[in-house]
Write a structure and sequence with these properties.
The structure holds 3 protein chains of 3 kinds. Helix content of chain A is 75%, strand content 1%. By secondary structure, chain A is mainly α. Chain C is built from 13 helices and 15 strands. The chains are: A mainly alpha, B mainly alpha, C alpha/beta. Chains A and C meet through helix 1, helix 2, helix 5, helix 10 and helix 12 of A and helix 1, strand 2, helix 3 and helix 4 of C.
């Protein structure tokens, strides 16, 4: 019988603390920052998916922006063309992306490294032309506008749309984090990691690469789809320019910068990819990409394991006396 | 006696022109793809900044011509600057992370991409600039079909450069040392081959190939900081299609891709020009599914 | 990892908090949001990075003009501060930046936000908040056409359909039996152009024999031009941005194509025409090409002595020394800035958003940076800000006006 996932007390406390911080932020900071944090949360979800796929299962993807596009456009089309409510649309987005991701995973089964990178890259570069070709459905280059998301019924008086988006986003972050954490505890997590570390050995242990590798793709694609749906809801507009090649690259940067070895890397990554460019602009609007690029390089050189990796190394050093002999793998 | 009707002659002419201009664009893809392969063979990583480095050095060449330097002198100086600059870049930015996980290095190359793009925009602005071509603009006639001298010149220069690179790696001691350092790092260290400097040399050579690509493409696509981005997209595809560790694959992949894109856009109506890119990539992925290491790539053997 | 989560949190939370709070330095609002006795705060977004970064320089042209105006006392005693941010042409980014500028900086109005998708993304929000979205930098027809739903939004550019309609009518008038082909950029600009051309041709729209599009991510358009040549067309319309337009002209020349070419005005600056002539190997490349203009072209020597050009160069010399005076986008920025100042002036000393909107909808100005004879008028029933243009033909290295200024919407 699979060991029941036991949650150490320390974890619950930290999770509770985190939840508290998340809950009070919108009442302490101005609404537009809640709005930006809603975006950060969405990115964190997509990056979490990427960490599961790349960090835990070892499959690189340069195309997760495409899944975000599918998620965002599903929501937009469901709302504008079919009159669906936003929450149902988001669920549909997750399902469609999971299916799409699964298909991609099957196609990419025998590919790895640079070859897999290119195959996923193909997705990212195909988004805009395909969206523009089917313009009756997608609105073409001009995109689709739809009503901004707002708090449902009774909450509408209490929460303005920015705060509602923030809570929606971070609630989903919390739920997906917890779900992923539990799911990765047992056999699933071990199988994914085993396939990453040594596929041949894993297969000889009876782990079916077909099932697990495509599952990893489907899983991470679903997360990216939810992220895309959240961003679309927040923006109230989708267009091919929202899902340019840039986006897939940004997600990868967020995952590695945050730290592939830890789910927390996703939260750090989400916050960094959202706020670093904004911060760079406050220094000098015209030179903002220069500043952004240099910051990236410096951070990666200083922290090759990502920020979460560096923090963990520091924490290891500080707590070394207690943790001796109890090395845990993430 | 007329072998072909006017109509047929016209179509053959059109086909020949599309093929030649496809080969020209393809040889630009090929040079950039070769640059990617050189670094991949040294470090196991795709250098995403290759295109922006090429663009940046092309701007330097442009600046030199603006200062009055004759064209070929500017080109020569730029090649040297590009080589030296890439070596310096490797020693300062890449060296600290030589042993780091590959994805870390990838992110650093992406950081370099963003930095050099921003730097070029900062220094030279974003308006497109005309770039002088070393080839005459008058068309070249062969058998009644007119080809652009630019196209033929580009094909010629690329092939010459590719041949030189091949000879370097296959026939010189230094080239041998570089290959050894990439394939057998531990053993070659023991034999006294300085691994770090071999990497730096790899970066230098790749940069030179990239610069060549930039210098040849700038007259056609006009110089601006975003000029190389579409080229790199196709070069990446070509390099992987050919087999990411195969120089021959990079060349063949590039030429095939250049010609195929042209022919597809012209002759296959339902694809049209807007879906060329997705269709081309879909076909390449299809090839990869059948041959997971590309056309000429080495199958990855893992020891359990 | 689990043991260290508290430490992770302890490190994370302050970093996150600092990072976020670092941006939150607000301003006090006074008479109206963004208006103090001495200052007017305007907001804007332009792409300073990413594939559309060529347009970023427009913001700098605007800044130079505002500096000039501020030096002469500003508008009704107030200096203009223009907060221009980089959205990278990503509409999701535009929305964030605009919300920040509304809620944190309390800008008075938005001016010259660039791009159709970015402006579409913020249009509903700004109209809901009743914040003026003025003189936006795009030629999409929807700004003028949909003004009833979005009364706070006002365009500036001659819209793309109007320009193409004029070309269509010109073809009908001078070459009624033309076989027409069009190269267009596959986005709202190019697609609006196609629609406009078809409208302008009317019944003769069936004479369009080939349409070829390109993406801004394509390396070149040679393949498309070969296709257009192969269609047997004798009239080609090039709806392309400079890099691709020059490539198209050169390609036609190399294919030895003979016919009439119409060129969208965004690519018709003298610099681009010279580049095309040089790369195409001679005057034949560009002779006879027809285009239109509604702003001055800094590289057009015949305009060098107009008062607008002199003013432009004087302003740049003092307030924009690092800018390239030959860049038409810089001049366009100044033209738009002139109109903004005009509207602010007419809104009066007692400045509110309503009054600004009212002033903007009652303009009748002689903008020195527009082509001589082109007038700029707005009214509550007509949100097409610039409607007039001058047709011109390229003749041996110079643009020569053809006929008189036309009102595109008549």
């Amino acid at each position: 019988m699979m060991a029941a996932a036991r949650v150490p007390a320390g974890n619950l406390v930290s999770f509770g603390l985190a939840a508290l911080v998340v809950a009070i932020v919108p009442w302490v900071l101005p609404p537009y920052i809640s709005f930006e944090l809603a975006y950060a949360g969405a990115y964190a979800i997509a990056i979490l998916g990427l960490i599961i796929l790349t960090g835990i299962n070892g499959q690189i993807s340069l195309g997760h922006g495409a899944f975000m596009a599918v998620g965002g456009y599903t929501v937009a089309i469901a709302i504008t063309r079919a009159g669906w409510p936003p929450e149902a649309a988001m669920l549909l987005a997750a399902v469609l992306c999971a299916l799409f991701g699964g298909v991609v995973g099957v196609v990419a089964l025998r590919l790895s490294g640079a070859y897999l990178a290119l195959a996923t890259f193909a997705l990212a570069v195909s988004v805009a032309p395909i969206l523009k070709r089917f313009k009756d459905l997608t609105g073409g280059a001009q995109g689709l506008t739809f009503p901004a998301a707002h708090a449902p019924g009774p909450l509408a008086g209490v929460l303005d749309s920015e705060r509602w988006l923030y809570y929606e986003s971070w609630l989903i972050v919390g739920v997906l984090f917890a779900a992923s954490w539990f799911a990765l505890q047992g056999r699933l997590g071990r199988a994914l990691r085993a396939l990453r570390d040594n596929e041949i050995a894993a297969v000889s242990f009876g782990i079916n690469p077909f099932v697990y590798k495509s599952l990893a793709f489907a899983w991470s694609a679903a997360y990216a789809g939810i992220a895309g749906a959240l961003i679309a809801s927040a923006t109230a507009y989708v267009s091919p320019d929202t899902y340019a090649l840039n986006l897939s690259i940004t997600l990868l940067i967020g995952a590695v910068l945050g730290g592939l070895g830890s789910m927390w890397g996703a939260i750090i990554g989400g916050i960094v990819v959202e706020f670093l460019p904004l911060w760079a602009q406050t220094i000098n609007t015209a030179a903002s990409s220069l500043i952004y690029g240099i910051s990236l390089i410096l951070v990666m050189i200083a922290m090759p394991g990502g920020i979460a990796g560096a923090v963990r190394r520091v924490a290891l050093i500080i707590t070394r006396p207690q943790s001796e002999g109890q090395l845990e793998r993430s | 006696m007329q072998a072909f009707s006017k109509q047929e002659e016209f179509h053959i002419q059109e086909l020949a022109q599309q093929v030649v201009s496809g080969l020209a664009t393809g040889s630009i893809f090929a040079s950039m793809a070769l640059a990617l392969v050189i670094i991949y063979r040294s470090m196991g990583v795709i250098n995403f900044a290759q295109g922006e480095l090429a663009m940046f050095t092309t701007f330097i060449a442009w600046q030199l011509t603006q200062q009055g330097l004759p064209l070929w002198a500017a080109f020569g100086a730029t090649i040297v600057i590009s080589f030296a600059g890439a070596v310096a870049l490797e020693r300062t930015v890449i060296r600290p992370i030589e042993r780091a996980p590959q994805l870390t290095v990838v992110i650093v190359t992406l950081g370099l991409l963003i930095t050099f793009n921003g730097l070029a925009g900062w220094i030279w602005g974003y308006e497109i600039k005309a770039f002088p071509s070393p080839f005459p603009s008058a068309p070249f006639r062969i058998g009644g079909v007119s080809f652009s001298s630019q196209d033929l010149g580009v094909i010629g220069v690329s092939l010459a450069a590719l041949l030189l690179i091949y000879l370097f790696f296959a026939r010189t001691k230094l080239g041998l040392a570089m290959r050894a350092a990439a394939l057998y790092p531990a053993e070659s260290r023991v034999l006294g081959v300085p691994h770090g400097w071999m990497l730096a040399l790899g970066w230098g050579l790749a940069a030179v190939m990239g610069t060549l690509s930039g210098l040849m493409v700038a007259p056609i696509v006009y110089l601006d900081p975003n000029m190389m981005q579409s080229i790199v997209v196709y070069a990446f595809a070509a390099a992987v299609l050919g087999g990411i560790d195969s120089p021959l694959g990079a060349v063949v992949g590039g030429l095939v891709l250049g010609v195929a894109l042209n022919l597809m856009g012209t002759y296959v109506d339902f694809i049209g020009t807007d879906l060329r890119l997705p269709v081309a990539f879909a076909i390449i992925v299809g090839v990869l599914v059948l041959r997971p290491s590309g056309m000429f790539g080495h199958r990855q053997m893992t020891r359990v | 990892m689990f043991k260290h989560r508290p430490i992770l949190l302890a490190v994370l939370v302050p970093i996150v908090a600092l990072g976020i709070v670092a941006g939150s330095l607000g301003r006090a609002a006074a008479d109206a949001p963004g208006v103090t006795p001495t200052e007017i705060l305007l907001g804007g977004t332009h792409p300073y990075s990413g594939p559309a970064s060529a347009y970023g320089v427009i913001g700098k042209g605007i800044a130079a003009y505002f500096a000039y105006v501020n030096d002469r006392g500003g508008v009704n005693g107030r200096k203009i501060t223009y907060k221009d941010m980089d959205d990278g042409y990503n509409p999701a980014q535009t929305v964030q930046l605009v919300k920040g500028m509304v809620e944190q900086d309390h800008v008075f109005a938005f001016f010259n936000t660039l791009g159709t998708p970015p402006n579409l993304a913020i249009r509903q929000y700004l109209n809901d908040q009743k914040i003026p979205q003025l003189f936006i930098s795009t030629g999409a027809t929807t700004w003028g056409a949909d003004y009833a739903k979005y009364p706070w939004t006002l365009g500036f550019n001659l819209d793309y359909q109007a320009e193409a309609i004029i070309f269509g009518k010109d073809i009908v008038a001078h070459q009624p039996n033309a076989k027409i082909a069009i190269l267009y950029q596959n986005d709202d600009f190019g697609q609006d152009y196609v629609t406009g051309l078809q409208k302008g041709l009317g019944a003769k729209a069936s004479q369009i024999v080939k349409m070829a599009s390109y993406e801004v991510t394509d390396p070149d358009v040679r393949s498309q031009m070969a296709t257009l040549q192969g269609s047997g067309a004798d009239t080609v319309v090039i709806a392309a941005t400079p890099k691709f337009a020059v490539g198209a002209m050169v390609a036609l020349s190399q294919l030895s194509w003979k016919g009439t070419t119409y060129l969208s005005n965004v690519s018709a600056s003298q610099t681009m025409m010279h580049a095309a002539t040089a790369a195409g190997g001679g005057e034949a490349t560009t002779d006879g090409i027809i285009s239109d203009a509604y702003t001055l072209d800094p590289t057009n020597v015949s305009l060098a002595n107009t008062p607008g050009m002199k003013l432009y160069r004087d302003i740049l010399a003092k307030y924009g020394p690092g800018l390239d005076p030959n860049n038409g986008f810089v001049l366009y920025g100044m033209a738009a800035a002139y109109t903004m100042v005009d509207a602010l002036q007419k809104a009066g000393k007692d400045l509110t958003r309503d009054k600004l909107m009212d002033a903007a909808l009652h303009l009748n100005e002689k903008n020195p940076f527009l082509w001589p004879g082109v007038e700029l008028t707005t009214s509550p029933a007509d949100h097409f800000t610039i409607r007039e243009e001058q047709l011109e033909r390229y003749d041996k290295g110079l643009w020569v006006p053809v006929g008189s200024v036309i009102d595109a919407r008549k």
